[in-house]
């Protein structure tokens, strides 16, 4: 007689924390999230959200910007500024739909922005992106390219916000050093973006990144913007380059490669 044993273990459902002060809006978003096999929990102000996250990190955070106590931007910065929580994908869901609010959300570290009123598909797409971001964390090599060729396209800022989170979360250096390096990555990206916006008649600038278990490499394409900075040694962008172990300039290819090794 053959006995078949069936495991009763069930993989736990991913969790989403919804930070929204309007009870009905909070409930509606929770219902949509459950349709994608997520457990949901609710917080109705920023401090409650941070307390919940401090006790147990969710798999994804849905965050309103207009909260009754502290700004959603401040909640996002707190989550993304801590190594313990920086790899939690943050989806801002807000009625503040101006381009400036999207940009400020990504600058604060958000990984996605969904405007109100939203459709269910927009929420499902944000969940799909959050799933993909979490799946990428354990890869031995994570790479991508951010292109600054369209001033109305903020996908580069969104992708680089996640890169800053990855640097803080995966870099084995002490947390303060990893945070400083993540800040430098942001400054480098801002330098490229600023030049691209100021020089729309020039070929598009781009930033390629490659993060491995050994270190980080940034390749900046479009070095015409670097030439005036060669003479500006006090420029903050030039100063931040000292955080990297190596800076290789290829003027024929109009390219700068920055390398930081963990060892």
Spatial ordering of strands, largest sheet = 2-1-3-4-5
Overall pLDDT metric? 88
Radius of gyration: 20 Å
Main sheet makeup = 5 strands, parallel
Query: Stretches where pLDDT falls below 50 for ≥5 residues?
Result: none
Basic shape: globular
Structural class assignment: alpha/beta
Order of helices and strands: EHEHEHEHEHEHHEEHEE
Description:
The protein has a five-stranded parallel β-sheet with strand order 2-1-3-4-5, sandwiched between helices. Strands 6-7-8-10-9 form a five-stranded antiparallel β-sheet. The protein has helices at 23-34, 46-55, 72-80, 99-108, 120-136, 155-170, 175-198, 236-240; strands spanning 15-19, 39-43, 60-63, 90-94, 112-115, 141-148, 205-212, 215-221, 246-250, 255-261. Strand 9 (246-250) and strand 10 (255-261) form a beta hairpin. It is built from eight helices and ten strands. The longest helix is centred in the C-terminal third of the chain and has 24 residues, at 175-198. Helix content is 39%, strand content 22%. By secondary structure, it is of the alpha/beta class. The chain is globular.
Defining traits:
263 residues, five-stranded antiparallel sheet, alpha/beta, five-stranded parallel sheet
Give the topology:
Layout: E1 15-19, H1 23-34, E2 39-43, H2 46-55, E3 60-63, H3 72-80, E4 90-94, H4 99-108, E5 112-115, H5 120-136, E6 141-148, H6 155-170, H7 175-198, E7 205-212, E8 215-221, H8 236-240, E9 246-250, E10 255-261
Parallel strand pairs: 1-2, 1-3, 3-4, 4-5
Antiparallel strand pairs: 6-7, 7-8, 8-10, 9-10
């Amino acid at each position: 007689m053959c006995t078949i044993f069936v495991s009763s273990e069930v993989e736990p459902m991913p969790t989403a924390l919804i930070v929204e002060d309007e009870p009905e809006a909070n409930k509606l978003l929770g219902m949509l999230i459950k349709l994608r096999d997520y457990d949901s929990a609710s917080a109705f102000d920023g401090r409650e959200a941070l307390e919940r996250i401090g006790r147990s990190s969710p798999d994804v955070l849905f965050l309103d910007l207009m909260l009754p106590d502290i700004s959603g931007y401040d909640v996002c910065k707190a989550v993304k500024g801590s190594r313990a929580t920086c790899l939690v994908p943050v989806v801002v869901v807000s009625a503040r739909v101006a381009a400036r609010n999207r940009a400020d959300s990504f600058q604060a570290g958000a990984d996605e922005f969904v405007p109100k009123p939203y459709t269910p598909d927009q929420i499902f797409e944000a969940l799909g992106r959050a799933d993909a971001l979490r799946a990428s964390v354990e890869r031995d090599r994570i790479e991508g390219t951010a292109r600054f060729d369209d001033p109305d396209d903020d996908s580069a800022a969104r992708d680089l916000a996640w890169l800053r989170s990855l640097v803080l979360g995966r870099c084995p250096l002490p947390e303060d050093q990893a945070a400083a390096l993540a800040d430098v990555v942001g400054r480098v990206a801002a330098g490229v973006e600023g030049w691209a916006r100021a020089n729309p008649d020039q070929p598009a600038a781009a930033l390629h990144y490659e993060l491995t278990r050994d270190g980080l490499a940034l390749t900046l394409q479009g070095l015409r913007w670097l030439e005036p900075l060669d003479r500006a040694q006090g420029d903050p962008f030039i100063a931040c380059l000292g955080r990297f172990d190596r800076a290789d300039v290829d003027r024929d290819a109009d390219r700068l490669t920055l390398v930081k090794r963990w060892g």
